[in-house]
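Q: Convert this sequence to structure tokens.
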Amino acid sequence: MTIHDRWLLPSRQREYPSRRVLTEEQLHARREATFLVLAGTFLVAVAVLPLLGMTRVIDLSSVLPDVELPFELMLPVGVLAFPLSFTAGCLVCELWGRRRASALVWIGLLLGLGLVGLLAVTDSIPDAAGRTGDSVAPALGFVACAFVGHMFNVQAYQALRRQSRGHHLWLRRAVSAFIALIAGWVVFALVMYTWAIQVAEVPSDEAGKQVAAVALAGGLYCLAFAIADTVPLVLAARPLRVFLRLGRLESERDAYAEGPTAAGMTDAEPRKRAAVVVDTSAPPAEEPRPGRLSKGGFNTGERRFFTEGEALEASEPGAGESLNDMTARGGQSA
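A:
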């Protein structure tokens, strides 16, 4: 596993100055428990979508009698919990990265296809009145909507995350949700419209109105939910990142320390020091002219006086050497 891999093992953790370093057992328990909560929320919201589906439909014009809608909006009850899957998916992508979030989306697809097969078996069994159900087509449309929407959400979120270098979480959340919801509900509308025309033999005008009413209601509801939960998502991301000892970016080479040592601390990867660059192309410093003050504040004559004095102090008188001879020798050495 490389340092860029976000399938982080508990032997790697981000060091925060105000937080203690956790052992591998503690870190593993925190990360897996948090991921199980987010994954459970994601899978339940994805499973409720095809299971409930269009068993009941809420007419938003009856819910909002004082608001005159320009077009009909029919919200299926299965969509009510669907936006929670986008919230959980964004948190997984923010904390663990694109790989684990993509794996979670694929598991959701397998779960949805399994539920579609279960609904197909259920529809083939007649009830007491001898009637069979017809919930496979809506369930298949909802599964396609969820898969395409979440794949677009993960890819767009990760691309924006790299461009912003881990900042502006609220903007990444809003833009990725907008792109994902458009893609997901367009796919749902195509699947449902094709089934209504080819299988149910509904007139094209009537089928278009019904599909548009459901797709628009579901998309607008999910978009409103995504805007409403942006603030809680931003407020929860930072504490969770610290709680799980995760870094902000995948490019942090020295952000993660290796496993705890015997003393319970970690040895972070040493950072490279910047080399000192000397500019050799600069012209040499100008020698001070006689009588001109140097940078130290003394002229040339004063500096020569100090130099001769230091030379006299350093020299020792020889045998039979007078004071005049010692002064002359100090002047020659200077």
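The beta strands are 13-14, 57-59, 74-76, 256-257.
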